[in-house]
Amino acid sequence: MQAEESVTSQVLIRFAGAEISLDNPEYRLPLEQTARDLSAAAGSEAQFVLLGSVASEKYVQVLTAIFGSRLVFPSAFVGRGDMSRGGLLLRAAASGEELEYVPVMGAVRRGSRPPKLEPLPRPNTHL
Fold first, then answer.
1. Rounded CA gap, 66 and 78, in Å?
2. What is d(CA 30, CA 91) in angstroms, rounded to the nearest whole number?
3. What is the DSSP letter of 52?
4. Chain-centre distance of CA 105, in angstroms?
5. What is the pLDDT of residues 39-64, one digit of tens each?
6. What are phi and psi of 85, to 5 degrees?
7. Distances (CA, A) of 77 to 8, 14, 31
8. How far is the C-alpha of 35 from the C-alpha of 39, rounded, in Å?
9. Contact partners, residue 51, CB within 8 Å, separation at least 6
């Protein structure tokens, strides 16, 4: 699929049926090509921030092979699930504080689950 193409419901159904596996060339080859294109366009000094699960080899392996030490992730992601990572990102965005990034290569990517995030205060909706 090209960047100019519209994403239709049929395309989404096709995406949903794709096997996300390093052994599947229909998954791996477009990811590799897009990563190479991004790397070339961004230049050698650019960093690439991975905001998904860093514990999964299905994309970490492909991306580190192309970006090397320029592929970084928030160190606070270790041990967190999807919702917790999202909550962490929302809190960082709201506070204006940037998370600490570390290179994926050589990093500890799996660890014990950190304590739950403190609940955010609920907005006062009573007028």
1. 22
2. 33
3. S
4. 15
5. 999 999 999 999 887 777 888 999 99
6. -60, -45
7. 32, 30, 22
8. 6
9. 73, 74, 85, 89
The counts of H helices and E strands in the chain are 4, 3
Provide the 10 A C-beta neighbour count for residue 68: 13
How much is the pTM?
A: 0.75
Structure tokens at 4: 């100019």
Report the SS3 class of residue 66.
helix
Question: Strand pairing partners for 73?
Answer: 102
For 87, residues 6+ apart whose C-beta sits below 8 A from its C-beta are 117
Tokens 């960093």 -> residue: 47
3-class DSSP state of 48: strand
For the beta sheet containing 101-103, the strands, ordered from the edge strand earlier in sequence to the opposite edge, are: 48-49, 71-74, 101-103
As a whole-number percent, the residues of the chain with pLDDT over 70 amount to 92
Q: Which two tokens stand for residue 120?
A: 């955010």
- Kindly write down the DSSP assignment for every residue of 72-108, as one continuous string: EEEGGGTT--HHHHHHHHHHHHHHTPPPPEEESTT--
Rounded to whole angstroms, the Cα distance separating 3 from 60 reads 22
